[in-house]
Amino acid sequence: MKIKLVAILILCIANSFLAQEKVSLQDIILKYESLEYNDVISLTANILKTGTLNKNELIEVYTMKAVSHFALSQEVESKNCFIEILKLDKNFNPDPVKVSPKIILFFNDVKEEFLKTNAQVEKQTEPEKDSPKDSILAVNKNLLFKEKTEFKNYLMKSIILPGWGHLSHNGSSVKGWLLTSASILNTGALIYFIIDADKKEKDYLNQSDEVQIKSMYNKFNTSFKTRNVLITSLVAIWLYAQADLLLFSFDDMNADINLSLPGNTTSEIPLQLNFNLKF
């Protein structure tokens, strides 16, 4: 007896599943045309679970389900069905022959809200693209950074040896060769006369012969004055080299660099950016 009851229960369950699986799109259409909206909602829910419908069939099923919900004053459920349709096809519009104007107005409100929300989401998730202005600014900033680094190197060389920075910047610059040559010759002569003045000072101080003292003093004094002149001339060459490098050879790096870009088509005011480079 128990076995029979179990068998009957299994058959009932199997028949229930078979009945669900046998739900066809045509059955739903017949119920829809008969205005049996509760049955339409139930059948569409079952057929959607099967996952066997193509895009056009899904749109048709969701449309019948949305209209049925709206007819039963279930606007939230109807709205959700229309949203599912728009997810499949955002350009979808109900057939005015088959759908009442009132429902079409409701659908249009849903569609407008959906498209607006969807556009905002896409804008938030869309990666930002560099505008032409940003690209130009990035390139110019990189160039400025490179020029600034090179200039610092030239300036450091010029501090060590006046004229060296000019040669590094301009290659075979006549001014660079003149300054470098003058610096080397002046430095060499200065080293010689520093040693010479020190030696002659010692000779003068160690001299005991009154006749030779005056002669030794004159030699020391001449060497000492020459040393001082060479110090002054080397300082002058050094200062001139730095000033020339800062004020003339790189006047574009010391002045404000103005980068003008055209504004948008509605504005006549150009976009101006100023970079002040300090060293």
What topology emerges from the helices and strands here?
Elements: H1 2-21, H2 25-33, H3 37-50, H4 55-71, H5 75-88, H6 101-125, H7 132-160, H8 164-170, H9 174-206, H10 210-249, H11 251-254, E1 257-261, E2 271-275
Antiparallel strand pairs: 1-2
Helix pairs in contact: 2-3, 2-4, 3-4, 4-5, 5-6, 7-8, 7-10, 8-9, 9-10
Structural summary, described in words:
The structure is a single chain. By secondary structure, the protein is mainly alpha-helical. It folds into two domains: 18-125; 132-273, no CATH class. The chain is built from eleven helices and two strands. The protein has a two-stranded antiparallel sheet. Helix 5 crosses helix 6 and helix 9 runs antiparallel to helix 10. The longest helix is centred in the last third of the chain and has 40 residues, at 210-249. The radius of gyration is 47 Å and the shape is rod-shaped.
What attributes characterize this protein structure?
about 280 residues; mainly alpha; two-stranded antiparallel sheet; 2 strands; about 75% helix; about 5% strand; disordered C terminus
How is this structure best summarized?
The chain is built from eleven helices and two strands, in the order H-H-H-H-H-H-H-H-H-H-H-E-E. It is mainly alpha-helical.
